[in-house]
Amino acid sequence: MAEYRHDVGCSITGGIVVRAGVTALEGRYLYGDYCSGRVWSLDADDPRRGPEELTAALGGPFEQLRSFGVDDQGTPYLITGSRVVRLTSG
What residues contact residue 78 under an 8 Å CB cut-off, 6+ apart? Predict the structure, then answer.
């Protein structure tokens, strides 16, 4: 379980556990905040280690962060109010 205060964001956008496509994120649960556009990850096997913010590394913040998904190859995506962003290594 992870939480944050309302001065950090206002609405958690649930995410996915990355299984393929981005080696550095494999085994991590990605989630974000709709209002702030920030993105974090947690180690899916040991969430007690705490969240790591990925916003800048992924090119965010992301306006109206709405959802996360994967394609048939397991590559992760994030969905905003106006675009779909494919997450890649590098």
Answer: 30, 32, 39, 58, 62, 65, 67, 68, 84, 85, 87
Could you tell me where the DSSP H helices lie in the chain? Answer: none
Q: Flag whether 2 is in a domain.
A: no
Per-residue pLDDT, averaged over 21-27, amounts to: 90
Q: Contact 61/36 with Cβ under 8 angstroms?
A: yes
Dump pLDDT digits (tens) for 31-64: 999 999 999 999 988 878 889 999 999 999 999 9
- Which neighbouring-strand residues pair with 70? 76
Q: CB–CB of 41/57 below 8 Å?
A: no
Task: Supply the pTM of this predicted model.
Answer: 0.88
- Number of domains, the chain: 1
Q: Which domain holds residue 77?
A: 12-86
